[in-house]
Amino acid sequence: MTHHATVVVGAGIAGLTTALALAHEGRPATVLERAGAPRDAGGGIQLPPNAVRVLQQLGLGRALAEHAVRPVGVEVRRWSDGRLLSWTRLGATASFRYDAAYYTLTRATLHRLLRAAVTEACGAGTVRYGRGCERLAESASGVTLQLSDGTYLTAGTVIGADGLHSVVRRRFADDALRYSGCQVHRTVLPGGSDGSGRFRPGPARVVVWLGPDRHCVSYPVDRDHSMNVVAVVRAPHATGPDDLPGTFRGWHRDVLRLLEAAAETGPQTWGLYDRPPLPRWHSARVAVIGDAAHPMLPFLAQGAALAVEDAVTIAGVLGRGGDLASYEAMRRHRVFRVVGAVDAARTTHHLADGARQRERDLRLAAEPADARDWLFDHRIPVGATR
């Protein structure tokens, strides 16, 4: 039975970033991935400065600058008339304020950049596809993993980066997915000759429309102005409507144009789920990170960012010979502050017109320039946890 010092379960954003961060700490890892080959599916993703700063330190700065879009800001608008409720400056302002850009790109592009970086830093055989973790057993001497191909291996340390449906998480809880009461409809409208840029001409920006029981988000994901469109709708069951634009009847024409185009492309639809908070994220030799530890709803665009923060934190702890309890102690307050803000946004994003909605709009309009500093300026320098 082959023994590995460190095994990372899952080759998504969390797992690949962990492998890369461990390599920078001089601690090579083996990454196990259930899928038989790399998958480049998925829509867009927003990468805020707290994640971009870490990825820059891991050597991805030039690749991100080349392949991602740097929006000039985030607009929050009213659902019916498109009235601007708030404007957050990004672009050069974010780069100066946080020493890192705010980027938008496709998940496929980010995965591709991470895979290339891991291959360069760790070697081509680091990620082992078609070898998912079915179960694991921990003892004082190590962890034994049973894999989906029928083989076994042992490890000194196992890091579960296997997402919402994590197998490694079962080491700490036998909990069930919780439906959030919201479903999401997502597509990428092609740019270039298709001209999806006609919907929001001018500089690249993230636009969020807030309305009763639903909200819509759009942003460009490449230099061809392909547009990621996300519509979130409160619903008692996680089943998609037959008429997505009809679900937003009465909304501003910009939203309806986006959703009409999205309906033509056949958007992906699924329910939004999370899990109850774990009492702990680690044992002596096993830990979970990212969505495996603390899944959250996508209302602040911080899920992937927190996974990146987790990855570099746990790599720094292991690199200096620390224990997994130190990783959790360094991350728990930060994570649950963000989770609390996400839970609040689930309500405030979807307020019906009335007194609470007007109070929210006034609060958004009055937000100071430093309102997002606690999110975006959280710093975990690579190698500085020593």
TrEMBL record:
<keyword id="KW-0503">Monooxygenase</keyword>
<dbReference type="InterPro" id="IPR036188">
    <property type="entry name" value="FAD/NAD-bd_sf"/>
</dbReference>
<dbReference type="Pfam" id="PF01494">
    <property type="entry name" value="FAD_binding_3"/>
</dbReference>
<dbReference type="InterPro" id="IPR050493">
    <property type="entry name" value="FAD-dep_Monooxygenase_BioMet"/>
</dbReference>
<keyword id="KW-0274">FAD</keyword>
<protein>
    <submittedName>
        <fullName>FAD-dependent monooxygenase</fullName>
    </submittedName>
</protein>
<feature type="domain" description="FAD-binding">
    <location>
        <begin position="6"/>
        <end position="335"/>
    </location>
</feature>
<dbReference type="GO" id="GO:0004497">
    <property type="term" value="F:monooxygenase activity"/>
</dbReference>
<keyword id="KW-0285">Flavoprotein</keyword>
<dbReference type="InterPro" id="IPR002938">
    <property type="entry name" value="FAD-bd"/>
</dbReference>
<keyword id="KW-0560">Oxidoreductase</keyword>
